[in-house]
Amino acid sequence: MGLFDRHAGLLEAYRDVRTTGADPFQIRMERVLSPTEAVINGRKTLLVGTNNYFGLTFDQSCMDAAIEAIRAEGTGTTGSRIANGSYSEHVLLEEEIAAFYGMKHCMVFTTGYQANLGVISTLVGQGDHLLIDADSHASIYDACKMTQAEVVRFKHNDPSSLDARLRRLGDRPGNRLVILEGIYSMLGDSAPLKEFIDVCKKYGAYVLVDEAHSLGALGETGRGLCEEAGVLDDCHFIVGTFSKTLGAIGGYCVSNDPDFDILRVTVRSYMFTASLPPSIVASVRQALRVVQARPELRKQLWDNVATLYDGLKAQGFKLGPEHGPVVGVHLPDRMAAVGFWRAMLDAGIYVNVAVPPATPNGVSLLRCSVCAAHTPQQLEHMIEVMTGIGRQLGILSGAPRLRVVAGNG
Amino acid sequence: MPDLGTGEPLLRTAHQLIVENDDIAVTLEAPCQTSRIDVIGEICHHLAPFQASDRPIVGETVIAKDLTIDSLAIMDMVMELEDRFDVSIPMNVVAEIQTVDQLADTILDLRAKR
Predict the structure, then answer these.
(1) Across residues A322-350, what is the average pLDDT?
(2) What is the pLDDT of residues A16-28, one digit of tens each?
(3) N or C end of chain B: smaller count of CB under 10 Å?
(4) Closest residue in A to B110 (Cα–Cα)
């Protein structure tokens, strides 16, 4: 048996996808022009699938901070946080994130993936119980493989399903740790966090919330779903990333637990990889200031979400359950999704395509992510293009669905 | 006990085969407890949409190999079975399970330990 034989099924599916002409998983951004535009296949393309929720990748103050840091401290740290890779700026960034959340402790990681992987797999061990939402991100599933704790999944966004699983544990010894996400990355839906927290309190379970897609987007000051739901003090650990709203790369975990810092010498994904380069630390520190200083970006983002979500809904597209910075458009199957995706690319619009096994319940999606920097015209153009393609491919019926404004229906 | 007469054709086939392989008299004597036949029936019900050929789903069916079900759908099915039988099957235990029989045994073992 060859080394790659075990991937035969995936290879076949991937070949099917590629026969459509363009490979959605090997798109080359030939030149990125702005947070909302890039050159792809030689043509200017509207970007609606980049997780760049506030459009800060080209923020002048963030770019200036990064350039200045490179000149002052060089291109990289060439070492881990526990060796030569902790600069004053790393420590300052941690203090600033902790202060942003009003928490005592913060650890910064080189990616958000590594933050989840390391923190979750280290917090629980043999004899403990890890309970995860069925739609959890890959980094959470991978953490489950690295811990000796017993892992049980509960139904997506279903507090009663979590309740049943905590109840069944009865008086068995061991800590309980529940993993939730602020906004789920495929369909853009939020966790019913208050209800989940109530269940966790009832059984004395610890809670970790991943705010990767909700940092900046949710909460009065952008701290995420924990702030929006008013349960910041009940969340024992909050994980997040710098690679979405903050426009760079990196991850963090904040907590009030007095012993939190022991993780610095136990979490392997923190200890055995190089720390973030000075330019990234500098741009992230500045981006965090921008998020706090410019709440209007959050309003722009949600205005744009409403434009795209409501516009697509009115045309009859099947979407995720609620408004969110991620708008997932359901398509009947993998080939329809890839065909639709390619037609959009040909029309000059880039979104993500998400197909099984990377999606919950085997759904095939066009995954759109909205940016505060999108103009209403860009999004209206996108709705028009998608409606046209949807009708051509027979995914939408010919006539637009009319909104009922009066009548006895 | 399950109504063997009303299932879909696929399920009926599976039930009958299980019945032939099982000691039905023992099952009938203990109507209050969850019987093996209940558990197998429920598993077959969830697996029926993934039947790959005319071969019926039986106790020896290797779930990930003989059927068209992927690993995510297996985990989702397990979640449904957990709630149906009020047990929790840790993911590392699920990973070790290969056949319908093994899955049924796991559920029955966990129920017995409650």
Answers:
(1) 95
(2) 777 767 788 888 9
(3) C
(4) A168
**What confidence category does residue B18 fall into, taking pLDDT thresholds of 50, 70 and 90?**
very low
> Strand, coil or helix: what is A150?
strand
Domain assignment present for B54? yes
Q: Which amino acid is at A173?
A: P
What proportions of chain A, in percent to the nearest 5, are helix, strand and coil?
40, 15, 40
Query: Which neighbouring-strand residues pair with A238?
Result: A209, A254
**B63 in any annotated domain:** yes
d(Cα A50, Cα A24) in Å, to the nearest integer? 14
Look up the CATH number of the domain holding residue B84: 1.10.1200.10
The per-residue pLDDT for range A118-132, each reduced to its tens digit, is 999 999 999 999 999
**Which residue is it, tokens 């022009």?**
A33
Largest interatomic CA distance in chain A? 71
Task: List the single residue in A with minimal CA-CA distance to B87.
Answer: A168
Interface confidence, given as ipTM, is 0.86
Give the total number of structural domains in chain B: 1
**Both tokens of residue A304?**
């744009």
Structural domain for B79, as ranges: 36-112
pTM listed for this prediction:
0.89
Contact A168 B86 (CB under 8 A): yes
Taking the CA of residue A162 and the nearest CA in chain B, the distance in Å comes to 11
Shortest Cα–Cα distance, A315 to chain B (Å): 31
Q: Is residue B1 a contact partner of residue B37, using CB atoms and an 8 Å limit?
A: yes
Q: Using an 8 Å CB-CB cutoff, list chain A residues near B70.
A: 356-357, 362
| Closest CA of chain A from B99, distance in Å | 19
- Closest residue on chain B to A144 (Cα): B91
How far is residue A186 from each of residues A266, A390, B57, B96, measured CA to CA in Å? 31, 20, 33, 29
Assess A152–B contact: CB distance below 8 Å, yes or no.
Answer: yes
What is the predicted pLDDT for the residue at B2? 40
CB contact (8 A) between residue A362 and residue B72: yes
In a domain, B20, yes or no: no
Give a yes or no: residue B78 inside a domain: yes
